[in-house]
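Fold these two proteins, one after the other.
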Amino acid sequence: MSSPGRVPRLLGRARRLTRNRDAIIYAILIAGVFIVPAIANFTQGTSSGVVLDQVANAGVFVLLAIGLNIVVGFAGLLDLGYAAFFAIGAYTYAMLGSGWLDVTAIHHAVHIPFWILLFVGMGLAALFGLILGAPTLRLRGDYLAIVTLGFGEIVPRIFRIKIEWTGGINGITALDQPTLPVWLTGPWAGQDFALTRNQVFGLDPVPYYVLIVMLIAVSVVLATNLYRSRLGRAWMAIREDEVAAAAMGVNPVIIKLLAFSIGASFSGFAGVFFAAKLGGIDPTLFGFQNVSIVILVMVVLGGMGNISGVIVGAIGVYFLQNVIIPQLPIWTTGAASSIGLSFLNNPNGDWAGLGDEVQRLNFIIFGLILVGTMLFRPQGLFPSQLRQAELTKGTSDQSVFDASTS
């Protein structure tokens, strides 16, 4: 006979394991926040800004992954249109934080500060999350994925064809730069310690690096509190069994709407920062392949439902896709030369040279890495111990009470 206290003990142990592991991961990430600028400044010198710029770009995808984890990991709703909310946030800043509206039918530019537009973009994205969620509440699984995929394709297409309002394929440029009333400069920026007023971010990657770290910290706190709240428990109940959750008093309509809306707000948050950092945007930046699928891969690879795992997955996939794999042709040609196989670098007939051949295999290498990771870690690199206990250890084939023997 199964012990009545077996399941609570397993879930309690899973919670403790998750907290301990998350504490270690967060400690490593926090240490990296301070170590990365120092290492970049020491190894790259005047080129250290390139490293910080890459890390800030990775931070945008971390924000997106945290938001999508709410929809996919917490609530169990497959959303393939996440790029749409990212685009809404970015275009909100592009249109309201620049002189663009002066050349439209409005003929009046609006220069709303970046700090206000952060919340405006978040609110608009949340509103469109409600609009998407309302007609899809009765859909599940593949049908929900198809509808969200369609939404993700429609929004960037609208931004592309409405040339008179969005600039079409050319996009919107010359966006206002964020400013801070007070800013501290120091050795990390190649300057002496000093307080400056009305600091314009400009092309300096350091302020963007500091800002994205702060935004991620706020997002992690919000997502963690949501996960531990009554709403988070309702999301998990819907994810595991919607019928049983409804029978226990959970309103699936409201809970799903909140999941779509709150998840979309994180995406709009990231979109505003992304547009401000780039200084210009266009519809090609928000496609299905380079945003929606990539973010979903980050969430699944890191571990759905686990915030720290999702962060690690987002950072890992970003640098794998944008730093490591693009450098493979250079590394392989250098390695071949160092071990006396430099003849492989020379073209010969159908052989284009080792570097070019590796360049052609970029997507295959990326796919093999993802497949291998999922084969060895099917629940992600850092899966949620609580969810794993619920799915694998929280059940028993033995009945607690057999009515036929009473």
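Now the second one:
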Amino acid sequence: MTTGTLHTFLRGSKDAALALAVRTFVNTRFSRIGQMTELSVDTKRRTIRVWLALKGEDEPIAIHVKKYSLERRSTRATLTIEDAVASREWLTEAMKEFVIGRRLIIPERAAAILKLLT
């Protein structure tokens, strides 16, 4: 196995572990709304794909975060979604209004997971 292949394998493993941890956290915390059925993270490209099965929705909702950035200052961390689209037009517009370009504070409990995103 070459160094590049090993690095790609390790990054893929890290991305998969991160996706599992985030999906478990979200599904535990927000089970009354629905569940995250799939999550894929590409830390190299800084992209995220999410599939949600929400209560009251007949079909899953897909969200593609095309670019995100992270910032850490001492004990505080933020996530900024720089570009994203959803399988529902209204959700894409809502993300543009309330999420895209805004810093989201990462809860301290999730700080360990945050280290994997970089």
